[in-house]
């Protein structure tokens, strides 16, 4: 057990090292990991950061592995908790072995085989070689949703699996009022605003959303805000140039103060083609937004159709358009769904319960002989 300094002097406190990408804020893994490290659990554990340097080589990178190993050796953690599979998870698993760490947890957020636009060779290597090694190397594998926990790769590892622990919902934070944001964007107070926040990629379904936006062009009382960056952004902006010129669609890029824009909106749209849960949906729920999302993966664990939003078939632009138009037409339904979304995120995704589940898991691992 490590010792750390506090106001009361030197105390025994387990050290848990967690990896964060040097690519920075904005992604789900970075956000979820940061929220866990900043939770009330910091009173019981000393969280330390292992920086995953994305600039150190491409593909399977020995240089990157050694850099991770050296950080782990310097920290001397009681547990290393790394935050995903794919290449980063493999690198972390190897680095932990080289550093002699015997207690590790991997949060499983998704599998490489789900990605639609990986090359066949890359997908095969990750799915059948690297990710199985990562899972087998971990002391525990924890899904971020029931959907993930029920995947075959985790079901065959029952002795290693703590089923699932949901992502932490975000704290509600806003620096500018709803009216001021709308004035800044030149959006009338009575205009219905739909917002979407994610990586702007085809995996997230933005090429489908683009077609839906075009079909909604006659909805003159609707403005759509799109927050985020990604490889499909430039193409999407070009294909929606008419809607942008008319002010029907506003691309905002990356925004650190996402809460300000959610607070100024009425509907949240997630057109993704696959999703293990969705930090963005949890955040939108915290701001009382009615939800429209694809019926895929772990999304139905957040969105209950007809209760706090609408679920649509992934890849179906017409269904997506109809669900948005339904909510644009009914302020009563928007308010009902938004109210229910807020209640659900504060019960099913209660922070104290999630903290208790992580605390229980960490304590169990620390008690086990290695």
TrEMBL record:
Q: Glycosyl transferase family domain location, by residue? A: 178-343
Q: Which Gene3D superfamilies match?
A: Glycogen Phosphorylase B
Q: Which UniProt keywords apply?
A: Transferase
Q: Does the keyword Amino-acid biosynthesis apply?
A: no
* Highest taxon, organism lineage: Bacteria
Annotated SUPFAM superfamilies? UDP-Glycosyltransferase/glycogen phosphorylase (SSF53756)
Keyword Transferase among record annotations: yes
Sample GO molecular function, one term = glycosyltransferase activity
Q: Which InterPro entries match?
A: Glyco_trans_1, Glycosyltransferase_grp1
Protein name as it appears in the record:
Glycosyltransferase family 4 protein
